[in-house]
Input
Amino acid sequence: MARRSRFSEEVRERAVRMVFEHGNEHGSEWEAMCSIAEKIGCSAETLRKWVRRVRAAYDAALQKFDLLALPTAPSKAQPLPAPDASLAEVVQAAWSNIANTQPFDHSHHPVISVPCGTSEGLPVGLMLVGRAFEESTIYRAAHAFEQHADWRTL
Output
C-alpha cells in the first residue's frame, strides 16, 4: 500500500522539478532525485515516467518539424526580490522563469536561446529546440535568425 503524502501535488511537482534542476549539485543526480522523491511521497518510478513522458512528447512534435520555437521564459523578466525578502519569495523568484527550459535538462533535446526583442527595455529570449543529436540544426537556425535582424530593434 502506497503511503499518502502530506504534501500537495503542486509542492511535489515543484520539488521534483527542483531535483531535476539541481540534483548534480549534491552528488549523483539520480540518488538525489530518489532521496527527495521519497521524502515528498513520489517513487523513483514516478520520476522515470515523468522523464519518459516529456521526452516522448517532444520527440513526437519533432517528428513533424525540424525544430520548435518557444519562449525561453514564460514571462518577461521580473525585478529581483528585496534584500530582506523571505526565503519563499526568493525561491519563487528563482523558479518563476525556468518552466520552459527545465524539461530539456532531462529530455536531452538540444536547446539554444537567442535574444529576439525587448520588453520594457529588457531582452526577450527565443528558445530553439532540436531533435536529439541534431545540434547543428539549432546552431544554423540561431545563426540565421541573428543574421536576419538586430534583436534590439525588433
